[in-house]
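User: Predict the structure for this protein chain, please.
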Amino acid sequence: MADLDDIRDGKNFGLGQDIESQGFYLKGCDNMGWGMKERMARIFRPGSGRTVMLAFDHGFIMGPTSGLERIDLSIVPIAQYADCLMATRGMIRTSIPAQLGKPICLRSDAGTSILTELNHNVIIDVEDAIRMNASAMAIMVTAGDPATEAKTFANLYNLVDAGQKYGIPVMGVTAVGKDMARDARYFGLASRMCVENGANIVKTYYCEGFEKVVAACPVPIVIAGGKKLPELEALELAYNAIQAGAAGVDMGRNVFQSDYPAAMLQAIASVVHDGQTPAQAYDLFETLKNGS
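Assistant: Here is the predicted structure, written as structure tokens:
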């Protein structure tokens, strides 16, 4: 119980000063609850409003792909340079030290592999995301594919319902089928559908006309790194996306398949957070590489 002998009347009420509106720094997030905003602030740096996510969830459909044979050897040593880790619950529990202190974007759907038709997936129990203290949940969707579109968007819709109940943001990840064009029309459609169905973050691919995709998407967009590129090209990809309005990158193979993944991740962060050009970031990469 508080000591009642030394209760003092309040004096500093700031009379004549209006209370400032605490608008949130990420687009589309002003009307989120406090818990949602706090989790978004773990992922996106308040200083820049951007994020560098390290994706190593590839094994959930690809198995031990190159660079991810041993998460403890490839990811753990470089995870400190990422803002957020994108992974499955199995790899997080078995291979990521809890004391690392990085926010987790939890891959929250599973069920099919690259050996079968993709995206006939189910979603995990949201209580498992809570147990893992996830900052966000990620789920794959496909637009324009009659075999999988309805199921994947139903999964997204249901995961958003669960996320809203417990204050956990949901990232919609736009998959690209083999017959789908990688263009602004498709990514604009898929991204907008994610938001219309409640996604708080969208992960999609950079393309020509990407600024239109971003403009029509009222929540933060992060880009996928896609296939492995030469380091300078990957830095150019990140730079072009940020210049077009992306709120960050979620890169995997362009980091962990690099010969110098720690240097590459830091170079990407210099583009995303510090406004470095691809040439400047590549110079940083070379410096860090030679010092490693």
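The domain at 48-225+240-251 is CATH 3.20.20.70 (TIM Barrel).
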